[in-house]
Amino acid sequence: xxxxxxxxxxxxxxxxxxxxxxxxxxxxxxxxxxxxxxxxxxxxxxxxxxxxxxxxxxxxxxxxxxxxxxxxxxxxxxxxxxxxxxxxxxxxxxxxxxxxxxxxxxxxxxxxxxxxxxxxxxxxxxxxxxxxxxxxxxxxxxxxxxxxxxxxxxxxxxxxxxxxxxxxxxxxxxxxxxxxxxxxxxxxxxxxxxxxxxxxxxxxxxxxxxxxxxxxxxxxxxxxxxxxxxxxxxxxxxxxxxxxxxxxxxxxxxxxxxxxxxxxxxxxxxxxxxxxxxxxxxxxxxxxxxxxxxxxxxxxxxxxxxxxxxxxxxxxxxxxxxxxxxxxxxx
Length: 331
Known about the structure:
331 residues; alpha/beta
């Protein structure tokens, strides 16, 4: 399938993985050459790559590198698995690679298939989701859910991208997304590259915009979706869902089927990643809090299914967000 977007987070080069270091954007584009699974694991844990679908794809190539180097499969699997506990695509991709290894399938082809399937899923999500975007829509999004967070095109940002490419006039409110500023650094960077109208806001501005009637819909991505439709996503998503519900604004989640964890019953059962406090107390390498001030840095929150208007997947739109509808759509 032809790719219409120049932005891409990684490339497989046959014997190594070329990875765009997203920590350096937008000031500079630095590519990392990763030649073993340890380097891939460090890149995932260290946020050089982020976004659940992209993490899954990169982990698949990391597994391939480890096996090609003669490492034991269980050790490679565990090293990569223990990088990010919330992003379900990570575990989904690694399980696929382990299954391919045990059945004798070609691991390089399996990793490439995972990447291509994610790209096609994103394109389909965009096609289905853009029908929910009215002409002239003012869309609020959180974190980064674009080509940088996936194998290409994007999930929530992919819906926006598809609507824009179809000729619809849209404007995007971009949450800055503390503390890593994925919205300010990455989403705005992607939107700038494609001349999609957008304006950056602080995370705390969203409620005021909704009250003023300046938001027509919210679209976010997901890192894990449970059997009952609860959604784990970047911290701040739950608050947006509450605000959207209060103001009668549709709240959509866009995610591929690989993000659904049907073995986990509800959101309370999702392991939520807590990262180091120094990430919260510093911004772009500069301290923004007293050195001895303690901090709590929770990376994700859980939005209950009843706050979600619909979930957009490559297999269809899940509405209402209920267990039976999810099972029917994904089957």
